[in-house]
Amino acid sequence: MALRICCDQPCKKYPPCRKLRRLEQILKILEAYIKLVKNSLNLLSFPVGSFACNCSILFSSKTREALIIDPGNDQDFILNAIKQLDIKVKKLLHTHAHFDHIGRSSEISTETGATLHLHKDDQFLYEMLPQQGLYFGQKVGAPKPIDFYLEDEETFSFEDEEIKTFLKTLHTPGHTPGSCCFYTEYFDSPHLFAGDTLFQQSIGRTDLPGGNSHMIIKSIKDKLLILPEDTTVIAGHGPETNIYFEKKNNPFLC
């Protein structure tokens, strides 16, 4: 079961009480949908943090194991969601090391015991998190060491026998040198967690440190546009799209 929650306002505009109500609404919808699950893998995707980064939680309804893709920079919201879902987060996966996607992952890792996963080519950005935080007006301490560096084609599994090897890593440099996407075929349609590589009718910016405009186009054409056309794309920000739509309508790719 895949559940996508959209929000048309940046999360920084939500005071704590509104954030809590928003989380309660998300979880209430999830509880209603969970009865329709065909296998035990569940997906909850929602915007979080000061730039409404799309965070995705994948978890097993049997074992309660979970991993989170791009936890963002609002650890209180994420930790509350983890508690309400009653899940055991094992891994924090990151599409890249910009502050809005990874800014509070160290704190979430400390609270949950989850391991940190990032491509090694974004290590320099990760080490700059305190400086990135200052740029956005937030104080960030020195981040925890990365536990595991992501590799192209690396897969992830849960102990749940129904959902072994359910997620694959695709290294897609361009937005940053270590940008990665994650791909799964465990839902009615395949799903791609694209980070800031591919957006609805757009692509990630390449004018920040490590960005490469030629490389991002190559990554998208070589790694993403070859996926099944009905693949749902959950971008790093904004609405979802699909591969077929982007092939036909994305002005950067047509």
Q: Can you tell me about this structure?
A:
- The chain has 254 residues and is α/β, with parallel strands linked by helices.
- The protein has a single domain, classed as 4-Layer Sandwich (Metallo-beta-lactamase, Chain A), CATH 3.60.15.
- Helix content is 28%, strand content 26%.
- It is built from eight helices and 15 strands.
- The chain has helices at residues 16-33, 75-85, 99-102, 105-112, 123-127, 129-135, 213-224, 243-249; strands spanning 2-4, 41-48, 53-60, 65-69, 88-93, 115-119, 148-150, 155-156, 167-171, 180-184, 191-195, 198-199, 202-203, 232-235, 241-242.
- A seven-stranded mixed beta sheet has the order 1-2-3-4-5-6-7. A six-stranded mixed beta sheet has the order 8-9-10-11-14-15. A two-stranded antiparallel ribbon has the order 12-13.
- A hairpin with a 5-residue loop joins strand 14 and strand 15.
- The longest helix is centred in the first third of the chain and has 18 residues, at 16-33.
- The model is unreliable at 7-16 and 32-37 (pLDDT under 50).
Features:
28% helix, six-stranded mixed sheet, alpha/beta, 254 residues, Metallo-beta-lactamase, Chain A, single chain
Would you tell me the overall average pLDDT?
89
What is the C-alpha radius of gyration, as a whole number of Å?
Answer: 17 Å
| DSSP strand count | 15
* Helix/strand/pairing category: alpha/beta
Strand-residue proportion:
25-35%
CATH topology: Metallo-beta-lactamase, Chain A
Q: Architecture in CATH?
A: 4-Layer Sandwich
How far is it from the N-terminal to the C-terminal residue, by CA? Answer: 32 Å
What's the domain count? 1
User: What is the name of the CATH class?
Assistant: Alpha Beta
- Largest sheet properties: 7 strands, mixed
CATH H level, superfamily name = Ribonuclease Z/Hydroxyacylglutathione hydrolase-like
Number of helices: 8
Order of helices and strands: EHEEEHEHHEHHEEEEEEEHEEH
Specify the helix fraction band.
25-40%
Strand order of the largest sheet: 1-2-3-4-5-6-7
Silhouette: globular
Uncertain segments of ≥5 residues (pLDDT<50)? 7-16, 32-37
